[in-house]
Structure formats: structure tokens, C-alpha cells
Amino acid sequence: MSPEGKKLFNIIILGVSFMFIFTAFQSCGNIAQTVITNLNNTDFHGSGYTSMSIIYGVLSASNLISPSLVAVVGPQFSMVISGVFYSLYIAVFIQPATWAFYTASVLIGIAAAVLWTAQGNCLTENSDENTIGRNSGIFWALLQFSLIFGNLYIYLAWQGKTHISESDRRTVFIALTVISLVGTVLFFLIRKQEDTKAPGDDDSTNEILGESSSARNKMMRAVAAFKKSITLSFTKEMLLLSVTTAYTGLVLTFFSGVYGTCIGAVNRFGSEEKSLIGLSGIFIGVGEILGGGIFGLLSKKSRSGRNPVVMLGILVHFIAFYLIFFNMPNDAPIAPMEGTDQVAYMIPSKEVAMLCSFLLGLGDSCFNTQLLSILGFLYSEDSAPAFAIFKFVQSICAAVAYFYSNYFLLQWQLLIMVLVGFFGTITFFTVEWGAAAALAARGSDYSSI
């Protein structure tokens, strides 16, 4: 297999592995609160929302040390270990215990930081400035298939169910644990890239992510990775991209938690209101996959860079926010368990709700594929610290959004996303113009998004 073929193979395996792990994890997350509600009459007294707060909080803090861990262990083995902890979190639901549930929440927060830092490093190692856009799109599209499979299960298997039996719970979570482990094992298929640098070449990536077995050298690489993370955090480009990244964190919370809650709270949807949550997730996944495919696989046909894709993403999201504002009752995010009978500016429409789900996914793919692409381009030699900072900012904002979503009416949540999204788009444009200038200075063709 040619070197380019090997790199493409690695990207596909990376995407498929993430697809299996997050099919299991997202399915677990979507049904966790329903399962926990049925368990709270027993000795189990956990909360799915508290678990998510712990996960995102620990994830944010762990991104400060994840580059050092990846530097010592290596990206491939880092992803394998992280996948094992994802599987353990899911397995807790086979025989739930409150202490195990919250302990696993802490561990998966650490594992998630390491997993995404290693993913960014692996993506960059197997890409160059001409293929980073394509590879980001392929990875993102494969990852988002997890939304299709997980939510299709919810829509079909949980329709009309009001109580989850112990047998149902065990069967489901044993299956999800196995699926997660399959994705973890697939990481072993990623092939290592040969070192093409001369022995005397100065390569900061090798300094940070080299393969020396010396304990002293590993410690030096870990310290160097931590210092590099701090240094990169205060660069002009990273500060500007942090605003865009913050927006993706807010949107992540909205479409993965708040919007489904809104749909499930609208009593005018009738008996379909709960199953529509799963259908909404499917439409989000379709939008994510379509966006990843178009802006990744077809990226070489673009001659104008990343900015048009990000512009499309913000326009699509603004349309979605406008329709959601008109379609969803204002109190839907914080409605009581019995739901809400209020009406917004139109009679709630299932069709409009599903269209908005699709638009949320499509717009999100626009932002994330281009952020992965520009980070891989700008920080090809410091990919682990760069992607750790990306995940740190995104996770912090997701955690903040989860907190205020329990208190803010829908209109205020939408307004926050509009404002942050507007400024995030402007800051992305600024960085991209700088990247275009850098390419021009090197005499490269500006054709990769």
C-alpha cells in the first residue's frame, strides 16, 4: 500500500472506530435519564444531568494534561485506553450503583480529553495541507453515523414504552458495551507512519511525540507538551479561534440536550412527542453526515478556502434558530415533567421541528470540519496541544450551557448562540485570511478547505 493509501486507510479506521464507540456512548446518554428514572425507586440515586456536568467539567480540566499523557503513551494506545474507559462507563448500567456511576463519570471525563487530543494528533499525522480538509470531512461524516444508529434504536425500540424492565436494561447495555469495545479494538488497525525526517532535523512534533523508551525523555516530552499547550493558548490565532470553538460548545449542548427536551415537552405533538426525540437525532445525524461528506470529500473542488463553508454554517444555524423561535414554546426547555401546552408564534409543527434538527446538524458540521481543518493546517507540528485547547474551550462552554439551560427560557438561549455565533464567524474569517496569506507566501495553491 502506498504511503498516501496507508494514511487514508488510517483516517477511515479512525472514523469507523469513533463511530462504534459513540454509537454506544450517545445511545447510552440518550436513554440514561429514562433508565435512571426507573432505577430511582431502588438503591440507585444517580442523576444523568449531574453525570453530564461531571463529565464536561473533568474533561475541561483534563485537557490541560492530555497532551502530556498522549506524549508519553502515544496517540494510538491513548485512544485504546480511552475506549476501554468509555466501555466501562456504559457497562456500569448493566448493574448500576451510585458510587460506580459517578466514579465512571470522572474517569470518562479524563478519557474523553485524552481520546480527542489523540484523535487530533492522529488526524494531523495522516494529513498534509492538501488533504487535511478531505480527511477532516471523512472523519466527521463517519463519526456522525453514530447519531443515525443510536437514535434509530431509540425511535424504534422505545416507542410507547413507559417502563424499562431490568431484563431490557441489561440486554441493551450489554449490547452497547460490546459495540464500544469493538470500536476500541479497531484502533489497533491504525498503521504507524514511517519517520521520513533526517536524524538531525528539527521537528517539534518528534520532540513532543517521539518514541524514546527513556523515562527521562518521556518526562521531558510531557513537560514540553504542557508548556506548548500554555504557549499556544495565548497566540493570536488560538485566541480568535477560541470564540468559534466556544460557539460549537454552546451548539453541542443545544442540539444534543436542550432541543430534544423541547420537542419532548410539547404536548401538542401528542403521543409521538417522546419518539420524536429519537427522530430528531436521526435528522441531526443526516445533516452532520451530509455536511461532512460535502465539505470533506468534495473539498478539492473548492477554490476559495474555508470561509464560505463557515458562512454557510452560520446562515443555516440562524435560519434554524429563527424557525425554532417561532415553532417551540418559550418555556419548553424548562417545562415540568407533564410538559407544556403553550404555543409560540405558530402551532407547533413536527415537520418544522425535524427540518430544524437537520439544519442544526448541517450547520454544526460546517463549523467542526473547518475547525479541524484549520487547526491541522496551522498547528501541524503541535497538533496534540492545539486539539487539547480546542476541546478544553468547547467543553467549558458546553458545561456552562448545560448549567444555564436549566434556568433560561428558549429565547435567551437562542440569543446567546446568535451573538456568540456571529462573533465566532468573524474571528474565524480573520484567522482564515491569515492562513491564506501564509499559503500565498509559500507559493502554494489555495484550494483546500
From TrEMBL:
Gene3D superfamilies: MFS general substrate transporter like domains
InterPro entries: Ion_channel_UNC-93, MFS_trans_sf, UNC-93-like_regulator
Transmembrane segment boundaries: 7-26, 46-65, 100-118, 138-158, 170-190, 238-256, 276-297, 309-328, 386-404, 410-431
Predominant cellular place of this UniProt entry's protein: membrane
Topology in membrane: Multi-pass membrane protein
One Pfam assignment: UNC-93
Subcellular location: Membrane
A single GO cellular-component term on record: membrane
Presence of keyword Transmembrane helix: yes
Keywords per UniProt: Glycoprotein, Membrane, Transmembrane, Transmembrane helix
Protein family per UniProt: Belongs to the unc-93 family.
Protein name: UNC93-like protein MFSD11
